[in-house]
Amino acid sequence: PASDAAAQYNPEPPPPRSHFSNIEANESEEVRQFRRLFTQLAGDDMEVSATELMNIMNKVVTRHPDLKTDGFGIDTCRSMVAVMDSDTTGKLGFEEFKYLWNNIKKWQCIYKQYDADRSGTIGSRELPGAFEAAGFHLNQQLYAMIVRRYSDESGNMDFDNFISCLVRLDAMFRKWLGHWQISQPWLSSFRCLQIFGSRWQRADPCDSEGGEKEPWCVLRKSFQQARNCARRSQRQL
Q1: Are 7 and 136 contacting, i.e. CB atoms less than 8 angstroms apart?
Q2: How far is Cα 228 from Cα 90, in angstroms, rounded to an integer?
Q3: SS3 sequence, the chain?
Q4: What CA–CA distance (Å, rounded) separates 73 from 94?
Q5: Rounded CA gap, 224 and 172, in Å?
Q6: CA gap 149, 22 in Å, rounded
Q7: What are the start and end residues of every segment in region (Disordered) (predicted)?
Q8: Does residue 115 register a pLDDT over 60?
Q9: How far is residue 172's CA from residue 117's CA, in Å, rounded to a whole number?
Q10: In the chain, what's the furthest Cα-to-Cα distance?
Q11: How many angstroms separate the CA atoms of 204 and 218, rounded?
């Protein structure tokens, strides 16, 4: 169930909600080097816009011909910026971009590892293993929805869709964990999520025009139901 992912997902600390313009004394040399790179990429405003992110990502994939991709489009990059933009500036500051960049590097390695047939894509059978390696343990219904949303007609997911999907998943689970810190009083929230993680209502706002359910709406609905259940449980303590 979705609760397995929420309970087992252990991300790094989220990006701070304020940008830092000065290099802190305790930064490692690696971080200093990354800050210098960020300065070159971000431009005068010291923030990365969706267009700048698109250019950066497409330069990266051109260096990796083994990654099958149509390239990162502006809509994909706008979505990535939107879910990573913790201070609602519409752009990514240093900490936000560093967090995203480190994830992309990690997910790129996972993508190559689970591209077992070296086709440049990840097939529907390879997908659960790749997502679990990234820290997400989803149920089969969610995997099926994600494949329909992000894969081609043969069930193969290319690199840009893989990254876009994981950025969205990371943001959703990070938001969940931010609202519901794992502690003894709130363990009930995860039990509730186990209950609701596989109970999807038939006709609900998650249904798209074609009758398919959007995976993000379904996952968000599951979280909301679990939250309400946990609140009721706490009142009974």
Answers
A1: no
A2: 31
A3: CHHHHHHHCCCCCCCCCCCCCCCCCCCCHHHHHHHHHHHHHHCCCCCECHHHHHHHHHHHHHCCCCCCCCCCCHHHHHHHHHHHCCCCCCCECHHHHHHHHHHHHHHHHHHHHHCCCCCCCECCCCHHHHHHHCCCCCCHHHHHHHHHHHCCCCCCECHHHHHHHHHHHHHHHHHHHHHCCCCHHHHHHHHHHHHHCCCCCCCCCCECCCCCECHHHHHHHHHHHHHHHHHHHHHCC
A4: 22
A5: 12
A6: 41
A7: 1-21
A8: yes
A9: 30
A10: 57
A11: 10
78 pairs with which residues across the strands? Answer: none
Lookup: tokens for 121: 């894509």
**For residues 34 and 202, what is the distance between their CA atoms, to the nearest angstrom?**
48
Tokens of 123: 């097939």
- The pLDDT confidence band at residue 25, using thresholds 50, 70 and 90, is low
- Report how far residue 92's alpha carbon sits from residue 110's, in angstroms, rounded to the nearest whole number: 24
Closest by CA to 103, choosing from 23, 14, 40, 43, is 14
The residue type of 162 is F
> Has residue 139 got a pLDDT over 60?
yes
What's the rounded Cα separation, in Å, for the pair 227 and 237?
A: 16
pLDDT tens figures, 158-209? 998 999 999 988 888 777 766 544 443 443 444 444 444 444 333 344 555 4
The model's pTM: 0.67
